[in-house]
Amino acid sequence: MTVREALNSALDEEMSADPSVFLMGEEVGEYQGAYKITKGLLDKYGPDRVLDTPITEAGFTGIGVGAAYQGLRPVVEFMTFNFSMQAIDHIINSAAKSNYMSAGQISVPIVFRGPNGAAAGVGAQHSQCYAAWYAHVPGLKVLTPYSAEDARGLLKAAIRDPDPVVFLENELLYGESFPIKAEVLDSSFSVPIGKAKIEREGKDVTITAFSKMVGYALQAAEILSKEGISAEVINLRSIRPLDRAAINASVRKTNRLVTVEEGFPQHGVGAEICMSVVEDSFEYLDAPVERIAGADVPMPYAANLERLAVPQVEDIVRAAKRACYRSS
Amino acid sequence: PPRPASAPPPPGTLASQPAMAAAMLLRRLPAARPPLMAATRLISDSTAPLTIETSMPFTAHIVDPPSRDVATTPAELVAFFHDMSLMRRMEIAADSLYKAKLIRGFCHLYDGQEAVCAGMEAAITRKDSIITAYRDHCIFLSRGGDLVTAFAELMGRQVGCSRGKGGSMHFYKKDANFYGGHGIVGAQVPLGCGLAFAQKYRKEDTVSFSLYGDGAANQGQLFEALNISALWKLPAILVCENNHYGMGTAEWRAAKSPSYYKRGDYVPGLKVI
What we know:
Number of strands of chain A: 12
Distance between the termini of chain B: 37 Å
Subcellular location (chain A): Mitochondrion matrix
Number of helices of chain B: 8
CATH architecture of the largest domain in chain A: 3-Layer(aba) Sandwich
Strand order of the largest sheet of chain A: 2-1-3-4-6-5-10
Largest interface: A-B, 32 and 41 residues
CATH class of the largest domain in chain A: Alpha Beta
CATH topology of chain B: Rossmann fold
Number of strands of chain B: 9
Strand content of chain B: 5-15%
Number of domains of chain B: 1
InterPro entries (chain A): PDHB_mito-type, THDP-binding, Transketo_C/PFOR_II, Transketolase-like_Pyr-bd, Transketolase_C
CATH superfamily of the largest domain in chain A: Thiamin diphosphate (ThDP)-binding fold, Pyr/PP domains
Shape of chain B: globular
GO cellular component, one term (chain A): mitochondrial matrix
CATH topology of the largest domain in chain A: Rossmann fold
CATH superfamily of chain B: Thiamin diphosphate (ThDP)-binding fold, Pyr/PP domains
Number of domains of chain A: 2
Helix content of chain A: 25-40%
Cofactor (chain A): thiamine diphosphate
CATH architecture of chain B: 3-Layer(aba) Sandwich
Helix content of chain B: 25-40%
Oligomer: heterodimer
Distance between the termini of chain A: 46 Å
Shape of chain A: globular
Catalytic activity (chain A): N(6)-[(R)-lipoyl]-L-lysyl-[protein] + pyruvate + H(+) = N(6)-[(R)-S(8)-acetyldihydrolipoyl]-L-lysyl-[protein] + CO2
């Protein structure tokens, strides 16, 4: 199943199961979705439940949050999360904080979804990763699926969740196909929020990653295994809440950690993971924590520069080796 | 003779707190009255129909204005006066508490604007929704909130309407379809249009009111929400409470056009005052 099919089927099934679920966003209806994620849903559910919006993120996101205040379950699509910045006040101040500010009176069962992070050659304003930004905020859940199973299970969990969820997809993963177990196809399937997945077990070094970087980390682990280093790859799945227990348990086993993310390094996801391990498992570390992130520059356009601005498999391999040889 | 304190108060008014109503009624009675005054009614409870002409005509934009003649009763008018007086006293008391530093942070007062929320309630039901920005204390009252939970919230107490976690700007009353209480100027307008979306989606036959000020009237997101509401035919009513100041800046320095009722362009508008 491709990630695209996984997302489409999850939306379809959740809309079928609950009449209060509806979709809104640019091109989600008649265009069948800017990336075809919502293909066929307008025909099936009609224009009252699949709504094409004008290019006005602040307005339509506010309308989505207001509808959620009254108990509907909107799924708001951002064509990319770069455009969510136009609506970020509604995501954070109107959605994330309302349950707390109202002492529980108002709940906001809304999902904000769309592609996040670098695509290919789209330049600086269309390539940023927002995982660290949204994961900073109490009141939000932030999910980052990698595989088709992740996409299907996490989107279903997000739609069923009573609180606002930021669902960060990846454009380059939409077409990728993954093998899935039969249970994933069941309409009640879901993946728990806040639990990471060990994609590959290992004993020498822990590599944490999310979204597209999970694939890169798995490739790196394969290369490392040929050089005698057994890497454990953790697919985070959930950035907020972060599965600190799984990360720390792994580091207590391997004693070495490499964090991988595509976004800018400063104040990124890796910084938080490193701090969690320092707080909980410091004595278990045999080497300083290594951080692999995107370059600290706005994303360049030229292909060779773009390649240098995002992590590559070789960077992860090098970092893992540094973590393994650094101890005395 | 004046209405006895034990008689049931008119429904939907703030005097539905018997002890409070009794205290206020008793305070209005003079200590001693000459026999000549004994036959005079001091407070009207008459429900005889009364027609009043509004003090100013309505100015309309692409809609027919309503008649200036309003049907009411003396009892209803007295109830309005009572509720508005209560709101005024609450806001002035809040001002004193704020200056005494018993209310912290921000405290935005609604004195002078009481007629807007008091009058609105007479035309709608609690199934209709209201949302506003941070000048929200009196709307909380008009939606059925009580003074104790309001003051407790202002002073950060657990029995406050948001359990002390919201403060002056974050009063809510979901059971009366009052959705707050918002600190970001202008944000409440798209949210209010979203409330209207849900009402239409569920075919509820109700409407939503988004209250905003002349300062918020310049916010871009208001026009984004208006565009979508007009396209999708949402039961949304945007109510501009023009107090001629946006924070500290006078209207004439912030708005090129003060004709807020016309700013909807293709959306009908009404200038009330």
